[in-house]
Amino acid sequence: MSNAHSSSAHLLPEDASPEGATPEAIGASPTDAPERTALSTSALSTSAPGTKARRPLLSPHHPLADVGTTIFAEMGALATAHGAINLGQGAPDADGPIEMIEAAAAALRSGPNQYAPATGIPELRQAIAHHQRHYYDLEVDPDAGVLVTVGCTEGIAASVLGICAPGDEVIVLEPSYDSYGAVAALAGARLVPVTLRPPKWRLDGDALEAAVTDRTRALLINSPHNPTGRVLDDEERNAIAKVAIDADLVVITDEVYEHLCFDGHRHVPLATMPGMFERTITLSSAGKTFALTGWKVGWASGPPELIKAVRRTQQFLTYTSPGALQRGVVAGLAMGEAPIDAVRAGLDQQRGLLLDVLAGVGFDVTPPEAGYFITADASWTGVADGRDFCLRLPEAVGVGAIPLGAFYVDPDRGGAMVRFAFCKQPDQIAEAGRRLSALTQGPLRSSS
Ligand SMILES: Cc1ncc(COP(=O)(O)O)c(C=O)c1O
Q: What segment(s) does the record annotate as region Disordered (predicted)?
């Protein structure tokens, strides 16, 4: 995860890769050993006896030098190797609206199949501007205030790289999504975590204020939050706005789970708060909203000055994203609230099923307010470390999970907390429940 804390040496176990990236997608085979696979730069520095020392192919000073595969790929490979049900992966196992898929397929057939406009096709930028107005009463300029990105992942990277200079500090709420630390490191910036604590995972406004220094450039806020499932409430949002305005900070908000709130919880974008629009880059993605995570169509919106800064980086990262998939997202956004509500309703049902399964097995669980995930303390199984638990779970009972330590600058802070994804079909959740019930016989206790 995120560990650009003070030097690259602290950068974590995983590199920046989206939730749900399959091992194959990032170059690992399903049978790859579960150990981290960081390339050893020294191993590449070969020198035959009697010859002068060779220059290493890969710089040991690269900001991601110590980073191997992401925790999602690592645990995904382990799940595959043991035929486990992968509740680690934050990717739905059923696709979103068929109308969107057909619109994208039709666009592929009819073209154009050449580069889409760098900022995104105009119809999608207009649809995004309409979405912001419809749901949040936010006015964004579809030409200068909206930028289509390759998933939210690129939006995060382009924002951090576009806003931060070497030596800057970026404050995040910890546990935090793994790409934050990696892109901060690439920007030469330092990730400064403000830690949220279970079981409530609430933001302490004083801790946030105390984290600001002369070097702070940006707050990188994720709500609804992965992995805790929290939705920031009024008090927390006010605290963030106060700190941002008082210290003149840019706020980058990752709102990919914006439409996946449950139990009456409501997502309120930070950009809607007084004095915040002009300093906020709002990021989102069609992936979670429409259960089409593989499409990787995301967007940034905000004031033209900030979007311009994101764009100047994004144009050199990918330049543009596939036009046909953008057309598919236009079709989805044109369908109004119904498909979005349907995705949320399905997830809500799956959330209930997994909560019952986990509670039935013996986990002490609190319903997440939003998102894809349930976090739980696994220490009752006899394993004190979440990573150890997740490494042994696939072989022991045939289920995959993710250790929360992967979301901390100091992985030890994750303790025995683990994350289970509920964006899976009911039969898969039920089968996972049958398998997890074996935990009550203490298969992990004996050898821990
Ligand atoms: C908090 C958060 N931000 C960003 C992303 C990546 O989004 P995308 O797949 O649109 O790049 C994810 C994916 O899991 C996420 O959980």
A: 1-61
pLDDT digits (tens, 9 = 90+) for 38-61: 344 444 445 566 678 888 999 999
Question: Is 178 touching ligand 1 by the criterion CB < 6 Å?
Answer: no
Nearest-angstrom CA–CA distance, 70 and 109: 35
Pairing between β-strand 417-421 and β-strand 402-403 as defined by DSSP bridges: antiparallel
Question: Does residue 2's CB lie within 6 angstroms of at least one atom of ligand 1?
Answer: no
Query: Hey, where are the domains in the chain?
Result: 98-336
Q: What angle do CA 195, 190, 145 make, to 5 degrees?
A: 90
Task: Report the 3 state secondary structure along 149-208.
Answer: EEHHHHHHHHHHHHHCCCCCEEEEEECCCHHHHHHHHHCCCEEEEEECCCCCCCCCHHHH
Closest to 71 measured CA to CA, from 409, 294, 404, 296: 404
Q: For residue range 96-115, list pLDDT tens digits in order.
A: 999 999 999 999 999 999 99
For residue range 271-287, what is the model confidence (pLDDT) as tens digits?
999 999 999 999 999 99
**Pair 133, 139: CB distance under 8 Å:** yes
| pLDDT higher than threshold 50 for residue 20 | no
pLDDT at 358 over 70: yes
Output the CA 152–ligand 1 centroid distance in Å: 6
The pLDDT tens digits of the residues spanning 196-233 come to 999 999 999 999 999 999 999 999 999 999 999 999 99
The pTM is what?
A: 0.89
CA distance 409 to 25: 25
Atom of ligand 1 nearest to the CA of 372: 16
Distance 194 CA to ligand 1 centre (A): 20
Q: Which two tokens stand for residue 166?
A: 């070497």
For the Cβ of 258 lying below 6 angstroms from any atom of ligand 1, the answer is no
Q: Is the CB of 176 under 6 A from ligand 1?
A: no
| Separation of CA 178 and ligand 1 centre (Å) | 10
**Atom number in ligand 1 closest to CA 298:** 10
| Ligand 1 neighbour 289 (Cβ under 6 A) | no
CATH of 98-336, one of 3.40.640.10, 3.40.30.10, 3.40.50.410, 3.40.190.10: 3.40.640.10
User: DSSP class of residue 148?
Assistant: E
